[in-house]
Amino acid sequence: MREHNYGQARTVGTPTPPRHEPKHGRGLKEIREIIRRTTIGDQAKHTATAIFEALGAAEAKIHNRSVDKIHFHEVGAVDAMVDIVCAAVGSAALGVDEIVCSPLNVGGGTVRCAHGVLPVPVPATVELLQGAPVYSSGPQVELVTPTGAAIVKTLAKRFASFPAMTIEKSGYGAGTRDFSGHANVLRLTIGESQAEHAGNISNETIAVLEANLDDLSPQVFGYVVERLLEEGALDTFALPVQMKKNRPGMLLTVLAKPEDASRLARIIFTETTTLGVRRREEQRHALARKWITVATRWGNVRLKIASINGTVTNYAPEYEDCRKLAAEHHVPLKSVMQEALQGYLTRTAE
């Protein structure tokens, strides 16, 4: 897999003085038409439009209006349109499978815009970067604008520290403003994921959430686990622990993608009695995997296949598929699972 990584020292989107826009700015419909009439490739057109639509959705939510009623003011200016279209064209030209972005330094202080003086990061930037890892350090200026936030939100597949990769190329873009002790530089690095050279074993960063629970109903606990999985948790599990004052309790652990961690933590807070959720990041090695479907006398069952360098190391029928068929046809669950496995082994032997 070819990966592209944004470096850590950056100003994403160029902070500029207030622009003198037309009274109502440009609407999304007008911007879509401008992009449609350009001579750039279809992929770049689609990406540029998606970036503006992300901006529009953020502004619409902030102003509590329909996205079709939103006018873009600053982001509708020519230079911002050039930024977005060029980012779309550049991302298409890179020819990479995945864009990874490191945590974003949003800056601080205040900025003057069409709506007056606003705190940094401005509301649109905050809305766009929900789920992304951010921090504030260094110069008290706007380091991530709504334009930059929309570009990153649309292009980046995930946020993580520098990925395991064999570096092939790198490039730097420097802003015009000089900050004391902070390089106003954006770095892009292209390389081959090490998963391609390590038997298709991927190395990824995951978030681990933990909470101690000693006064939660078992029925509620089961519901919380099911909801966390439905909301995107990679896995959840619990261990019995001895709490203070010798009370028995449970340690709830949730594995999640870093961009989902904050949202899942909110679910833990709202659905359980805990007053604190611990969070840390860990590295996870994962085998390449795929799904296949096999037929049984009761219906189709999916199997998860894991492999290294094309050699199958693990395979297992999907529990929910087997459970559903067993319940519908009033047969033992183990019979459905055994027939699904036999179907897979028969197929591989042919």
Q: What does the model show?
A:
The chain is an alpha+beta fold. It has helices at residues 28-36, 42-63, 78-94, 123-128, 146-155, 218-230, 261-271, 319-329, 333-349; strands at 2-6, 98-101, 104-105, 110-113, 116-119, 134-135, 158-159, 165-174, 185-193, 201-213, 235-242, 248-256, 278-296, 299-308, 311-317. The strands form 4 sheets. The chain has a 6-stranded antiparallel sheet with strand order 11-12-10-13-14-15, sandwiched between helices. Strands 7-2-1-9-8 form a 5-stranded mixed sheet, with no helix packed on it. A hairpin with a 2-residue loop joins strand 14 (299-308) and strand 15. The protein is built from 9 helices and 15 strands.
Low-confidence region ranges: 7-23
- Write down the oligomeric state: single chain
- N-to-C series of helices and strands: EHHHEEEEHEHEEEEHEEHEEEHH
Largest sheet: 6 strands, antiparallel
Taken as a percent bin, the fraction of beta residues is 25-35%
Dominant shape: globular
Helicity level = 25-40%
The rounded distance between the terminal residues' Cα atoms is 31 Å
Over the alpha carbons, how many angstroms does the gyration radius reach? Answer: 25 Å
Widest beta sheet: strand line-up: 11-12-10-13-14-15
Tally of strands: 15
**Tally of contiguous helical segments:** 9
Q: Structural class, from helix and strand content? A: alpha+beta
Task: Report the mean per-residue pLDDT as an integer.
Answer: 84
